[in-house]
Amino acid sequence: MTTTETFLADATPSTQDADPFQLDVAGTWSLRLDPDDVGERERWFAEDIDGTDQVRLPGSLQEQGFGDEITVDTPWTGLVVDRSFYTDDRYAPYREPGAVAVPFWLQPRRYYRGAAWFSREVAVPESWRGRRVVLDLERVHWESTLWLDDRRVGSERSLSTPHRFDLGVLEPGRHRLTLRVDNRTIVDVGPNAHSISDHTQGNWNGVIGELTLTAQPVVVISHVMTLPDVERRSVRVKVDLASGTAGVGAGTVTATVRRVGANAAPVSVSASFDSEQSRDLVERGMVAGGGHVDLDVELGEDAPTWDEFSPALHELTVELETTVDGAVHTHGRTLTFGLRSVGTEGTQITVNGRRTFIRGTLESGVHPLTGHPPTDVASWRRIIDICQAHGLNLLRFHSWCPPEAAFVAANQAGFYLQVEGPVWANQGAAIGESRPVDAYVYEETTAILRTFGHHPSFLMMAHGNEPAGRDAEFLGHWVAHVRRLDPRHLYTSGAGWPTIPENDVDSISEPRVQRWGEELESRINGRPPETTTDYTEYVQASPRPIISHEIGQWCAYPNFAEREKYTGLLQPRNFDIFADFLAQGGMADQAEEFRLASGELQELAYKEDIEAALRTPGFGGFHLLGLNDFPGQGTALVGVLDAFWQEKGYCTAAEFARFCGPTVPLARLPKRVLTSGEELTFTVQVAHFGAAALEGATVAWTLQDDSGAKLDSGTVGGSTVAIGNSSMHGEVSVAAPESSEARRLSLEVTVTTAEGEQHANDWSLWVFPPAAPAPTSDVLTTRDLEEALEAAEGGRTVLLFPELGAPHTEVALGFSPVFWNTAWTRNQAPHTLGITHDPAHPALAGFPSDGHTDWQWWEPLHGANAVVLDDLPEVHPIVQPIDTWFSARRLGLVWEVGVGEGRLLVCSMDLHSDLDVRPVARQLLASLLGYLGGEGRPAPTVSAEAVRQLLTPSPTADAG
What is the E.C. number (predicted)? Predict the structure, then answer.
């Protein structure tokens, strides 16, 4: 079989029920790369490029092995904030030709940026004679130019919607299609926009999704818009017609609606028109004339609505029959819609008139196997099912728009989408300054609304992400424009900012536990733990709903075992570098320990971030950053799920959904640390944004210890849990148990419905004795280094609280894990990922802990310093801060060595000041002293000079 015959064999009807007027042109195409841009000048479109490389479409050329080897000069699309890779000696092995590995994002096996030419032959059937032929390419990256034989057809540049080319009326027989695709930056949408950047999906070149040729009649349905009316249980169908002649002639439009998956009879409405009704014809695009017909379809009083609790769908079929010059022509369009309305009520969002709460996460286009987003429904349904299992109800597509399949999957699942234009006009780009991107914003968002606007899952829209420039002025006009164009959605100017009167909803980054630049002054790092703080002041100051922008951003340590999953285009060479750094620090055997301990802290931080939003009466919702990892921007491992949307082993969906979901019990705790016998008073609250109020429900609380023994319990409130989160269900006072030992307790609040369904949430509390037991050992406690060394050399047991300078003060230690990552934030504090320790170590025998950071550690960690132990590799800390993967330093908070004939335990936490009001520090001190009073464990013996050099501040460092 010749190459041409293979190409022709691939051009088959696109569905099993063969449409005689549609051919699938997916399959093998010839490929010729054009890095020097000579193709047009040399008229490659007029040549037969058979015999060159071959590639399959849909697909990208990179994932099929085409492109260049990665070098230090690879022209990446995306900003590299920390450029130490290019200069630091530590990265020198990763800059070697043939072995280049970059630390700032996933690395493709091959890279290509430039023009690529794709060519194949197709056979136009005789039955298509006299019809206009249209080529549809579902998703192209980025600019496409098409030639038919040697005739230039046109060019398209949408990153979000299908590229469509009108080939005109073709003579039956063989024709050559030549497609030039250029994936360079066609419009400056911002180097980090997730639509184009190597930070996320990668700058791929090719075509994905459906590739079809369609033969159209003279008069076609060019666009259908559905305007559902929930109150009237009806839908207005606005049909636009287009003709290749001077007019649309006479004919009939019929709209038929049926309920998907139901036995209800379909409903049809028809309208006729003639040439007299077509006087409003306008010249538009590829056609010479057009017109429109509007129809109202009554769906019936029992027609179900669509939302997250009941995703009832309706299928609309519009059929056109026209008579032009005595000939009858037919054309049809089918789409799915939902009987759904979205609006606002004060500061909250409503869906079908019912208040809802947005619980969203980002979808940033990270798909490592292919390097481009999937276009099949099953792949998107998998992601959405995972999100729903974690209690979420929305995906925000950060600076890009997903393919059709994502909308279809969301429609089926009852899941909301926030769609954005493919723009992050920042880091050098800007809007509102008469740059080409201004027109592109309108061009792309208009195309998105016309293509995907009918999907009920399409709930919200922003122009893009975090703009620079004259953003408020420009986007005020944009919001007004798109709202007039399509009133079916909520609009906000941009994700993150600006806050302008035209917005339906404000997306702002202020109300969250840690904000950009707050570092150790954030609430989680700067204030003792409690669960009473909310964002009421933001709600009171806003006339519109607020959705907090990109909350969380809490990192966990890399999972190096994850590397085996990367069997496709994108490779985790960044993980390879970080694994090497850890091994060079002598801690390769602790990789799994670091991952799990940091992951537990990450989950804890997300829980407080989410609950703070849910506690806020009148709040609109949040967007997480994120449920899954973001492997770009320096490597931001911020998800409880990895880049494949799979669990990491420390947080299940069920655990996450206890504090994130339609119904979440809440406890407003003024503190999480108590002393023996102290009375705790807290308020029970329920954030309930379900399908209806819970009638006959029981709200209860239980206090128990680690063994599961119930210490106290009760019920609160009435029997109804209303929709919302404004009602407090009751105040509870309970006494902490009398105890001479430190204990951990668990407070659980449950909501049990009349049908027996239960929603539960819990919080750990710690109870400490009112006074620590007096030490019985002869232990010297000092802050003086020389006194400590002298005593230890003399055979004494010493507990030293050193005063530290550089390099130790360069490691900013906080309670929370790293925010986003230190490379992208330019080393914002904290620099660590919590602590790890053996909870069975006798030094911690009197201090309740589980091997990772929990809220009882806030007090001793506040103001603490990590000691850099790289010069004492034989020392294994008892309590070890987990350093960021970029540095991989061996750090210590509590560590022990032998000096001379004595023992030296070093603790760089403040366990010596104000102990009368610091019960946690008091108890931890008692535990350490108790350990030092015993036999202890074998510790490496080092010289006093080695300890002195380690702990003596450098001359240029500030002590402390």
Answer: 3.2.1.23
Contacts of 709 (CB under 8 A, 6+ apart): none
Q: Over the range 139-168, which residues count as b (16 or more CB within 10 Å of their CB) and which as e?
A: bbbbbbbbbbeeeebeebbbbbbbbebbbe
Which residues, at least 6 apart from 83, have a Cβ–Cβ distance to it below 8 Å?
Answer: none
For every residue of 751-810, DSSP letters joined together read EE-TTS-EEEEEEEEEEE-SSPPPP-S-EEEES-HHHHHHHHHTT-EEEE-----TTGGG
**How far is residue 301's CA from residue 310's CA, in Å, rounded to a whole number?**
16
DSSP three-state, residue 628: strand
Q: Quote the CA–CA distance of 274 and 276 in Å, as a whole number.
A: 5
Task: Cite the beta strand spans of 405-511 per DSSP E.
Answer: 416-420, 458-462, 490-492, 506-508
Q: Give the CA-trace dihedral at 939, 945, 949, 951, to 10 degrees.
A: 50
- Alpha-carbon torsion angle 863, 864, 868, 873, nearest 10: -170
Nearest to 862 by CA among 916, 906, 908: 908
Number of other residues whose CB lies within 10 A of the CB of residue 944 = 18
| pTM beyond 0.85, yes or no | yes
Could you read off the pLDDT of 912-927 as tens digits, one per residue? 999 999 999 999 999 9
List Cα–Cα distances, 130 to 125, 164, 244, 289, 891, in angstroms: 11, 19, 11, 18, 77
Domains annotated for the chain, with CATH where assigned, are 3-68+110-215 (2.60.120.260), 219-337 (2.60.40.10), 342-556+602-644 (3.20.20.80), 677-768 (2.60.40.10), 779-951 (no CATH)
Neighbours of 73 (CB within 10 A): 8
Provide Rg for the chain, Cα atoms: 32
Q: E strand or H helix at 717, and its extent?
A: none
* Residues 827, 558, 192: CA angle, nearest 5 degrees: 55
β-bridge mates for residue 297, sequence order: 235
